[in-house]
Amino acid sequence: MTTHDSRRRTLRRLSLPLGATVLALGIAATTVTPAAASNSYNGRSHIYGVGTITDDLNDEGVVNVSTNVRSNVTCLWQTILWADGYLPQSGVDGSFGPQTKAATQAWQRARGLSADGSAGKLTWAKAGTKISYSGASGGKVYGGYDGTKVNFMVRRTDTGGNWEFASGSAKGGIKWASYNSVGC
């Protein structure tokens, strides 16, 4: 028997397990979370936008009990839930837990979305329909979220950048939640 025949036989024996491994990896890659499968997760723990502020939420990443659990994006999502009457103001704490998940599911059901309790691409896009443009001043673009119960203001740099949102009033003016903070 030649070395060539021996190699060929070895390759044949390895091809079935190797093929099965490649198939399994392919299946695993297509059965990851819906947001990852649709490439909607951008990995940021904050909202980022460029151009028109009214479409900034159309490409945001996932926030749920396992992704961006404690983040600025969670603060914004909880503020949206509060503004629409699904979460008490005391629940806006920047930590995505069971109460936020249940509120997210109720919010999604009310809007005809899959109630998976995860704010992904479709959920953010639906929330984004309630963002309005208010104007620009001092290098910032201003807008607002038109909630069912409460409205709140948002802003970002006018050339594109990270969002800030008014998380409540502070003595002497509005308290802005910065993109790099978790404090809601």
UniProtKB/TrEMBL annotation:
Signal sequence interval, chain numbering: 1-35
UniProt source species: Streptomyces genisteinicus
Stretches assigned to the Peptidoglycan binding-like domain: 78-126
Keywords: Signal
Signal is among the record's keywords: yes
InterPro entries: Peptidoglycan-bd-like, PGBD-like_sf, PGBDSf, TAT_signal
Name used for this protein in its record: Peptidoglycan-binding protein
